[in-house]
Write a structure and sequence with these properties.
The protein is α+β, with helices and mostly antiparallel strands. 72% of the residues lie in helices and 11% in strands. It has helices at 2-36, 38-57, 96-162, 168-202, 226-236, 238-260, 300-370, 374-408, and strands at 64-76, 79-91, 264-274, 287-295. A hairpin with a 2-residue loop joins β1 (64-76) and β2 (79-91). α3 (96-162) runs antiparallel to α4 (168-202).
Length: 411
């Protein structure tokens, strides 16, 4: 008894070790996708470009410097005025630059959430393709095993035909079954190659690169109860956070538009150079003239339209966010249903495959003795293959549904 328990514990630890190793393999592929996928790199560069816009809008306008030359010098008591230099600087109304900076900062944060959304979406695509690869690989293995069983059964049928205890029809039937399975196997191999290409291109590497797949897919449940997952989606989904930050950026844009319609202040200085005259003060600068001025925004329609544009866009973002929340809740319900359905199918098909295998053993024993129920053996072989494929499909579907729900939560 102790030895049996020891064997069970060792087997469990070994399977768990394989599962952890397989998940580490997948995590390595995710890291490679994050580092190499061109679409994700493009999204990150868009975020970096948005950051550069912050310093652009928060800076003062360039100062203006002008040079004036008197073609005909103006005579003064200090001498003739030959040329002058003037410099001026415009200052927007108080708080205008800060409002523009806040708008650009929130727009950049929205771009960052867009980048995180692209990253989460990419990771979900990598995981889903990985699980599809697992299923296709297991389908090929199961089909090959079924072909081996049919080949063994074909040998038995030939012996029965030669002994005169069975009809040639049995041999023909099994040849038909083998032909169908061989065609199905060829299709599965083509499908596997296509999925391998898709997976490697997500990682931006050569399509023939080897992909390590587990012998048995791990079985992970969802991290939280259903209500907590829904709340997490509404609070952390990157698409919603992106829209929320865009809305905040538009609020600051409204403020900036209002302040743009206020006067701007100009501070300047004129410096006039005077040439030599006939008196003792010749050659001295005649005039240093400080200047202060304002711009008067008389044409109000332009500034009013700027504010209204930002208001309309903010309202649009509010409704877009509400619509996106409704869509995400609907999509989550579908993902939850898919996860629960796959979980049930795992249990069902494990049991069905076990029963089918037992039935085949009994039918083959009966056929070898009596030559009867050959058609039933073929039918049960088809069912066994179906249950094996459905079991692996359910395992892949469950983890794909889990990955999709994690994607919705922004993980």
């Amino acid at each position: 008894m102790k030895r049996l328990m020891y064997t069970i514990i060792c087997s469990f630890l070994l399977l768990n070790s394989f599962s952890v190793h397989a998940q580490k393999e997948l995590n390595g592929y995710l890291q490679a996708a994050a580092e190499n996928n061109p679409g994700l790199i493009a999204s990150f560069n868009e975020y970096m470009a948005a950051l550069e816009a912050v310093s652009q809008v928060s800076s003062l306008p360039d100062p203006q410097v002008a040079f004036g030359y008197f073609i005909k010098p103006v005579e003064t008591r200090n001498g003739p005025m030959n040329f002058k230099i003037s410099a001026s600087q415009m200052f927007p109304w108080f708080g205008t630059l800060r409002a523009k900076e806040d708008a650009a900062t929130h727009a950049a944060k929205a771009k960052y959430e867009q980048f995180l959304e692209a990253k989460s979406k990419l990771f979900n695509e990598v995981r889903s393709t990985y699980f599809n690869l697992y299923f296709s690989n297991k389908a090929i293995v199961a089909t090959n095993e079924n072909l081996e069983l049919l080949t063994s059964l074909q040998k038995l049928a030939i012996i029965k035909v030669e002994a005169g205890t069975s009809s040639m029809v049995d041999e023909y039937r099994i040849e038909i079954e083998i032909g169908d399975l061989e065609n199905q196997l060829a299709l599965l191999r083509d499908k596997l190659f296509t999925q391998q290409t898709m997976f490697n291109k997500l990682l931006n590497r050569e399509q023939q690169e080897q992909i390590n797949l587990p012998d048995t897919l791990w079985d992970e449940g969802l991290p939280y109860p259903k209500t907590a997952i829904r709340d997490s989606i509404l609070a952390q989904n990157h698409q919603l956070l992106n829209l929320d930050l865009q809305e905040q950026a538009l609020q600051f844009k409204q403020e900036a538009a209002r302040k743009t319609g206020l006067p701007q202040i100009m501070v300047g200085l004129d410096y006039t150079f005077v040439g030599k005259g006939d008196n003792n003060l010749s050659g001295k600068d005649a005039l240093v003239l400080p200047q202060v001025g304002i711009t008067i925004p008389l044409y109000r329609n332009k500034y009013k339209s700027m504010v209204n544009e930002a208001v309309y866009l903010e309202t649009a973002k509010q409704n877009e966010k509400l619509n996106k929340s409704n869509i995400l809740e609907t999509v989550f319900e579908q993902g939850w249903k898919d996860f629960q359905d796959a979980d049930r199918r795992i249990t069902l098909n494990e049991n069905q495959a076990k029963l089918a295998r037992m039935s085949i053993d009994l039918l083959e024993t009966d056929y070898s003795n009596t030559g009867k129920n050959f058609e039933e053996i073929l039918r049960m072989e088809r069912k066994l293959l179906l249950y094996q494929l459905e079991l692996e499909k359910a395992r892949a579907d469950k983890q794909a549904a889990r990955s999709f729900i994690n994607y919705l939560m922004g993980k």
